[in-house]
Amino acid sequence: MRTDTEKLEKMVLSPYALLAVNSKGRDVNEAQCDLRTDFQRDRDRIIYCKSFRRLKHKTQVFLSPEGDHYRTRLTHTLEVSQIARTISRALRLNEDLTEAIAMGHDLGHTPFGHAGERVLNRITSIGFKHNKQSRRVVEVLEDDKGLNLTFEVRDGIENHKAKSKACTLEGRVVSFADRIAYINHDIDDAIRAGLIVQENLPFRSNLLLGTSHSERINTLIHDLVKYSIDKPDISMSEDIFSVMNELRDFMFTNIYRIDSAAKLEECKAENVIESLYKYYFENENLLPSFSQKSYKVTGKEQAICDYIAGMTDRYALAEFTRLFIPAAWGRI
For 119, which of 197, 231, 251, 273 could close a Cys bridge (C-beta 3.0–4.6 Å)? Predict the structure, then answer.
């Protein structure tokens, strides 16, 4: 069945798609599955790993929001995957490769979203970027030996940010899908929280992209497909790309900035991360056993970053409480 799928890919996919049989493969060779291509197996390994499950308790934008309908890092990942798959199918790219990259692109994200990332990047001499940490998760940390994913999936995970470029069109699709997803679902959450109203959005956005969540996403996807079909790269029209970036700038000014109403609690979250880092830097013997093994190989700073980045929001808060908040006395 796998070979039938591989033959079908050759028949129906674009000449610019990466066929599963043309993958550069895994670092460690292993027998192939009878049913699934290598990219399908990569997607499944990511979905079943612990790091993926922890995304449900990691912040997207809003810290500990009151209400069940705000996005988490997991729901963000699912929305990126859906958008990326839609684009890849329309462009006749490899949908399995696209989905695997999308599912794994944020596995290395810290607790408390980009607030946690900023702190670790600031206080460590080695720096910290969540895209590089996501690759580290699948190559080294998950299951204590990594997931042994194909090269193209690992490359797409690391290069999903706008300033970098994946080696495959499927990876570049995920990069665009990530921006389309977070800009639009963060607007949706901000409106739900009463921080902005639709009329606050830039005039050109309402005019060119539409005035609803679904209209904006539909316009962006259609434009990207129109300007990328049967081409060796992924791109948008100049006008739509410009207005998407204008909308992104609006969000950074009004929602993502540290003094916005949505982000006032981030200073507290940053203090949690910084306190945990400094504590373990001074007391590395109190790190979990798996982290102590790691720092003998990678160094203390990397081991501490690995440990903290793997935490969920609530686990980080529990650790902070255990280490820094006095426990109540029991009754005598």
Answer: 273
Token pair of 303 as six digits? 């081991």
What b-and-e string marks burial along 78-101, b requiring 16 or more CB atoms within 10 Å of the CB? ebbbebbbbbbebbbbbbbbbbbb
Q: Is 231 helix (H, G, I), strand (E, B) or coil?
A: coil
Tell me the mean pLDDT in the region 162-181: 96
**pLDDT tops 70 at residue 261:** no
d(CA 20, CA 7): 10
Average pLDDT estimate for 279-291: 91
Q: Is residue 332 over pLDDT 60?
A: no
Q: Are 316 and 111 in contact (CB under 8 A)?
A: yes
The rounded distance, in Å, linking the Cα atoms of 170 and 167 is 9
The span from the CA of 106 to the CA of 84, in Å, is 14
CA pair distance 304, 119, nearest whole angstrom: 13
Secondary structure of 92-118 in HEC code, one letter for each residue? CCCHHHHHHHHHHCCCCCCCCHHHHHH
- Would the pLDDT of 41 be above 90? yes
Please name every residue paired with 59 in a beta bridge, in sequence order, or none if there are none: 72
CB 293 within 8 A of CB 307: no
Residue 39 structure tokens: 């990219």
pLDDT in tens, 175-232: 999 999 999 999 999 898 888 899 999 999 999 999 999 999 999 999 999 999 999 9
Q: Cα–Cα distance between 119 and 110 in angstroms, integer?
A: 10
H or E element at residue 316:
helix 313-324
**Termini Cα distance of the chain:** 68
Its pTM surpasses 0.70 = yes
What angle, 0 to 180 degrees and rounded to 10, lies between the N-to-C axes of helices 300-309 and 113-123?
A: 170
